[in-house]
Fold DJ-1/PfpI family protein.
Amino acid sequence: MVFIHLAEGFEEVEALTAADVLRRAGIDARTVSVTGEKMVKGTHGVAVEADMLFEDCDYEKCEMIVLPGGLPGASNLEAHEGLTAQIKDFAARGKKLAAICAAPMVFGSCGILEGREATIYPGMEDRLKGARATGGTVTVDGSIITGKGPALAMEFALALVESLKGRETRDQVAEGLLYGEASHD
């Protein structure tokens, strides 16, 4: 099971692309509201009904925590003490963590990037405390996956699939989505 966390001001394309692509791969991906309400409004005003509330999650059954970016969404995730405690616990146990756009800053503030490589939205590299900022589109360093921004949501989501189910499943999902066949006419 994968928990994709939604806070007020989350980046819609990042959260929903991750949920969609993971589900296409047969992964039980659930959106989780950290607001206390199931309806959560994204940074561009798109309201999404989360599958569940943070308070109802069983993190022992969770394989991966995913954080979409967006502002103030990433800041709101960073301020959620229950979520940051789960992130620190996952990091200590080597469980999978993923964040895209502004959200890798949450990992930085949790102190889990020391000596690792990570990427983040351009101009926010100083928020990757302890990490070497790669500037890459998606960076995988052990159990931590980071993505650069909204236009890379598909590449990020496919990296999550690969991390959980392997390259073959990732490639099958990508092929079904026609990923890589975009027209440049």
About this structure: The longest helix spans residues 12-24. DSSP finds six helices and eleven strands in the chain. The two ends are 40 Å apart (CA to CA). The chain has a mean pLDDT of 97.
